[in-house]
């Protein structure tokens, strides 16, 4: 009888371990650090990032009669539920499905914006934005410039889920921001949670330049915060200092901000140093001033992003910082990024610039 | 044998029908159409592949013949004399401007040019049938549309020279015109990108209260092979946009003949497949183009998208960077220039109506030629925009990186100005 119970317990343990291990494989590689500060006064309500994005679009559709929301499967609420309930509320002519064609979605959105409407286009995954690359880089980004300011598609915002999700492999994990950062004329914004998502998305929609709004999809449900109920905006092109420190500056955006927040905690416990953590928030135009001022103070810089290392946006930051802060740098700028390989399926835990890789790079940086 | 079996089948069907009548359940195999969500179509028991020979070619609508004679009087459009003459003058203006600017490129006075020879009829026929509030998206060989809508030769020439009077501020290559005032969206070089944009603009129009505007989008037979063309047709159809897509099928995309561009019945045959109201027209006949576009417009403003394929022949070289005799016989060009010349045909029509004659022709042609030459001389003398315009309008507001780069260039020019053509540009 005892042996039977022991056996049963052992089996149960095995099962629990199995579940734990599989969940470890699929679980996120970060701990979410919610924002505690309210960006504006007024009532707040608990929202995850998906709900905050939905709320931003709801506010836009309510206040701007020209605004429309479209993309693949947007009508029923979108595959990530960001458009949930909006078609019922605002009608099929304002929230609608398009044919499955990314170049068409981008081109259609540019045309709408050119004709004076507010266009919010959704590309289902950032991995599938490349068919629209020509429309975004050659057309959207250059519209105002080439017409001498006669025409522009500034009222266009392209939203797209990006980044690692645990098991997305090659085509449900990419972070394509650096491809677009090389195209003058387009703004690129990445939120780190619910509060920033709402404020930055409303800024993108109201901004007079075409914006690419990349939403780290792993945060859709995990990022829950007390989000202001009213409309508010956060400035595009401005970074935020989330932790003050003097030993090194850590820069990231999107999900990776949470990795670095944990790294700064680990650094305090294990290395006994205080790091300054900066969320860049805007990739283009990016806030070189905030980053450089921080590096002038700390003398050390670590940049981390999920996208591959070579020609990733970290390279641009590193080059600018070495130019602006040469006399202040105590160590070479460190970049911890995805490896220069396609984003893999079963190897994701080894591919991502996780807290251990960042911590080790930081340890090297501090003792350099 | 076949008859016999069909008789027995007929009997069997009668029995089946009788059974169905007494049965409470209907037999799906007897329903006329299959129930697949993707298509409304009947079943058949015979395999039949369809290809380009399965249908008759789409016919080409025309109003006048090559001698300018109206073929069917009922089809002659009621256009007032003033407009008719204006259409002709626009074609002539364009033709003279093309000749002189083409030559000026050969002399190295402008960097690039593209003529409109042979396609002038599509331009004026369509432009005359549109409202000036309709928004035009074009490819690059539609200058007659711009002239008819009121763009002046002076504006066009300024753009080609990129001087400070060019509203585009000298940033784009010659022939990349645009005019906010005339509802002509600035052209860009990437082919077919304007097509889904036109559809999006049309959707924005559709949503404005009491909309009476439509969007017109021009493109060539080569551009129709781009993915964006497919996107545009499909979006226009599914989203029911007030848009008229006008294909200029002139037989060539640079050196590629249509035989190597597609194997179906031209571009028009694709229209019905996307749910577009489609028609093919003789593009060398301005009156036929007028009729077709006018009819298309009444459909489009009711959110019924239209595809028009205007057949023509590219008489000139593709551009000043191209010698078309390298890939097509000179006799072919000559034949089209003589027999199907849209300007010539339209002139014969006007002469029959007593609206034009040799004297008017000589005077007008001479005047225009002189005007173009004078305009060019003026445009040439005008300074180019201030170099700082190079970094303006990238964004609505200039971001810090561009402010910094402006300062860098300013500093650089202070030191090295003798190595730059400063005197040709406006200065502070």
Automatic annotation (TrEMBL), chain A:
E.C. code: 1.2.4.4
Task: Spell out the SMART domains in the cross-references.
Answer: Transket_pyr
* Requisite cofactors: thiamine diphosphate
Query: Can you state which reaction this protein catalyses?
Result: N(6)-[(R)-lipoyl]-L-lysyl-[protein] + 3-methyl-2-oxobutanoate + H(+) = N(6)-[(R)-S(8)-2-methylpropanoyldihydrolipoyl]-L-lysyl-[protein] + CO2
Q: Which UniProt keywords apply?
A: Mitochondrion, Oxidoreductase, Transit peptide
* EC class of the enzyme, as a word: oxidoreductase
Localization: Mitochondrion matrix
GO molecular function per UniProt: branched-chain 2-oxo acid dehydrogenase activity
Record-annotated Transketolase-like pyrimidine-binding domain positions: 47-222
- Is Mitochondrion there in the keyword field? yes
| Annotated GO biological process | branched-chain amino acid catabolic process; response to nutrient
Assign the protein's first listed, main location to one coarse class: mitochondrion
Which Gene3D superfamilies does the entry mention?
Answer: 3.40.50.920, 3.40.50.970
Q: Which domain of life is it from?
A: Eukaryota
* Main function: Together with BCKDHA forms the heterotetrameric E1 subunit of the mitochondrial branched-chain alpha-ketoacid dehydrogenase (BCKD) complex. The BCKD complex catalyzes the multi-step oxidative decarboxylation of alpha-ketoacids derived from the branched-chain amino-acids valine, leucine and isoleucine producing CO2 and acyl-CoA which is subsequently utilized to produce energy. The E1 subunit catalyzes the first step with the decarboxylation of the alpha-ketoacid forming an enzyme-product intermediate.
Subunit structure comment from the entry? Heterotetramer of 2 alpha/BCKDHA and 2 beta chains/BCKDHB that forms the branched-chain alpha-keto acid decarboxylase (E1) component of the BCKD complex. The branched-chain alpha-ketoacid dehydrogenase is a large complex composed of three major building blocks E1, E2 and E3. It is organized around E2, a 24-meric cubic core composed of DBT, to which are associated 6 to 12 copies of E1, and approximately 6 copies of the dehydrogenase E3, a DLD dimer.
What is the protein's name according to its record? 2-oxoisovalerate dehydrogenase subunit beta, mitochondrial
Which species does the entry assign this protein to? Brenthis ino
Automatic annotation (TrEMBL), chain B:
Protein localization? Mitochondrion matrix
Q: Which InterPro entries match?
A: Alpha-ketoacid_DH_E1_comp, DH_E1, THDP-binding
Q: Which reaction does it catalyse?
A: N(6)-[(R)-lipoyl]-L-lysyl-[protein] + 3-methyl-2-oxobutanoate + H(+) = N(6)-[(R)-S(8)-2-methylpropanoyldihydrolipoyl]-L-lysyl-[protein] + CO2
Offer an example of a GO molecular function term for this protein: metal ion binding
Read off the Pfam families from this record: E1_dh
Q: What is its EC number?
A: 1.2.4.4
Gene Ontology CC terms:
mitochondrial matrix
What are the protein's UniProt keywords?
Answer: Metal-binding, Mitochondrion, Oxidoreductase, Potassium, Thiamine pyrophosphate, Transit peptide
- Keyword Transit peptide part of the UniProt annotation: yes
Superkingdom is Eukaryota
Provide a GO biological process annotation: branched-chain amino acid catabolic process
The Dehydrogenase E1 component domain covers which part of the protein? 88-386
Q: Does the keyword Mitochondrion apply?
A: yes
Predominant place of localization:
mitochondrion
Describe the task this protein carries out. The branched-chain alpha-keto dehydrogenase complex catalyzes the overall conversion of alpha-keto acids to acyl-CoA and CO(2). It contains multiple copies of three enzymatic components: branched-chain alpha-keto acid decarboxylase (E1), lipoamide acyltransferase (E2) and lipoamide dehydrogenase (E3).
Q: Report what the protein is called.
A: 2-oxoisovalerate dehydrogenase subunit alpha
Species whose genome carries this gene = Brenthis ino
């Amino acid at each position: 009888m005892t042996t039977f119970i022991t056996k049963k317990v052992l089996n149960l343990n095995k099962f629990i371990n199995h579940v734990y291990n599989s969940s470890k494989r699929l679980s996120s590689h970060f701990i979410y650090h919610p924002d505690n500060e309210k960006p504006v006064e007024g009532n707040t309500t608990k929202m995850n990032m998906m709900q905050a994005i939905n709320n931003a679009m709801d506010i836009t559709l309510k206040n701007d009669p020209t605004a429309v929301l479209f993309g693949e499967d947007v009508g029923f609420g979108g595959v990530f539920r960001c458009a949930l309930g909006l078609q019922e509320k605002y009608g099929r002519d304002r929230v609608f499905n398009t044919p499955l064609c990314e170049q068409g979605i981008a081109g259609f959105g540019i045309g709408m914006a050119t004709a004076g409407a507010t266009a919010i286009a959704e590309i289902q995954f950032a991995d599938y934005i490349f068919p629209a690359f020509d429309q975004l880089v050659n057309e959207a980004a250059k519209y105002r410039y080439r017409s001498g300011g006669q025409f522009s598609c500034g009222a266009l915002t392209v939203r797209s889920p990006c980044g690692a999700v645990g098991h997305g492999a090659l085509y449900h994990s990419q972070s394509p921001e650096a491809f677009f950062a090389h195209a003058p004329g387009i703004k690129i914004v990445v939120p780190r949670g619910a509060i920033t998502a709402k404020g930055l998305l409303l800024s993108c929609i109201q901004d007079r330049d075409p914006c690419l709004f990349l939403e780290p999809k792993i945060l859709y449900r995990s990022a829950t915060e007390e989000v202001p109920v009213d409309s508010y905006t956060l400035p595009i092109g401005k970074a935020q200092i989330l932790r003050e420190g003097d030993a090194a500056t850590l820069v990231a955006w999107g999900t990776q901000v949470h990795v670095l927040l944990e790294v700064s905690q680990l650094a305090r416990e294990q290395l006994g140093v205080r790091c300054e953590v900066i969320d860049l928030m805007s990739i283009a135009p990016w806030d070189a001033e905030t980053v450089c001022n921080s590096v002038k103070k700390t003398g050390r810089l670590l940049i981390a992003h999920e996208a591959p290392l070579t020609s990733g946006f970290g390279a641009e930051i590193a080059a600018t910082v070495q130019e602006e802060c040469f006399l202040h740098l105590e160590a070479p700028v460190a970049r911890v990024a995805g490896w220069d390989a396609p984003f893999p399926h079963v190897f994701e835990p080894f591919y991502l610039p996780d807290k251990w890789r960042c911590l080790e790079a930081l340890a090297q940086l501090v003792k350099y | 044998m076949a008859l016999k079996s069909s008789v027995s089948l007929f009997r069997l069907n009668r029995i089946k029908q009788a059974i169905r009548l007494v049965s409470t359940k209907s037999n799906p195999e007897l329903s006329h159409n299959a129930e697949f969500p993707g298509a409304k179509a009947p079943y058949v028991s015979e395999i039949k592949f369809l290809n380009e020979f399965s249908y008759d070619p789409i016919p080409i609508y025309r109003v006048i013949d090559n001698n300018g004679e109206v073929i069917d009087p009922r089809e002659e459009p009621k256009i007032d004399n003033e407009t008719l003459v204006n259409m002709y003058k626009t074609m002539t203006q364009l033709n003279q401007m093309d000749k002189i600017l083409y030559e000026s490129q050969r002399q190295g006075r402008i960097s690039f040019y593209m003529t409109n020879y042979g396609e002038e009829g599509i331009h004026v026929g369509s432009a005359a049938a549109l409202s000036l509030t309709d928004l035009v998206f074009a490819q690059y060989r539609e200058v007659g549309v711009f002239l008819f809508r009121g763009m002046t030769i002076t504006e066009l020439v300024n753009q080609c020279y990129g001087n400070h009077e060019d509203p585009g501020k000298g940033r784009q290559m010659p022939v990349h015109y645009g005019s906010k005032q005339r509802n002509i969206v600035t052209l860009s070089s990437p082919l077919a990108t304007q097509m889904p944009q036109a559809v999006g603009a049309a959707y924005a129009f559709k949503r404005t209260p009491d909309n009476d505007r439509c969007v017109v989008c021009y493109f060539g037979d080569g551009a129709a092979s781009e993915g964006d063309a497919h996107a545009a047709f499909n979006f226009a159809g599914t989203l029911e946009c007030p848009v008229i897509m006008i294909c200029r099928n002139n037989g060539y995309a640079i050196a590629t003949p249509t035989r190597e561009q597609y194997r179906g019945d031209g571009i028009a045959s694709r229209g019905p497949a996307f749910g577009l109201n489609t028609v093919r027209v003789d593009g060398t006949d301005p009156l036929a183009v007028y009729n077709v576009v006018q009819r298309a417009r009444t459909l489009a403003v009711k959110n019924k998208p239209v595809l028009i394929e205007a057949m023509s022949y590219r008489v000139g070289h593709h551009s000043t960077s191209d010698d078309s005799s390298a890939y097509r016989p000179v006799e072919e060009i000559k034949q089209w220039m003589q027999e199907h010349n849209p300007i010539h045909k339209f002139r014969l029509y006007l002469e029959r109506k007593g609206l034009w004659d040799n004297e008017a022709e000589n005077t007008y042609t001479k005047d225009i030629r002189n005007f173009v030459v004078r305009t060019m001389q003026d445009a040439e003398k005008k300074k180019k925009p201030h170099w700082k315009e190079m970094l303006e309008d990238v964004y609505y507001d200039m971001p810090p990186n561009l402010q910094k780069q402006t300062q860098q260039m300013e500093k650089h020019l202070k030191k090295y100005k003798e190595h730059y053509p400063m005197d040709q540009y406006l200065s502070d």
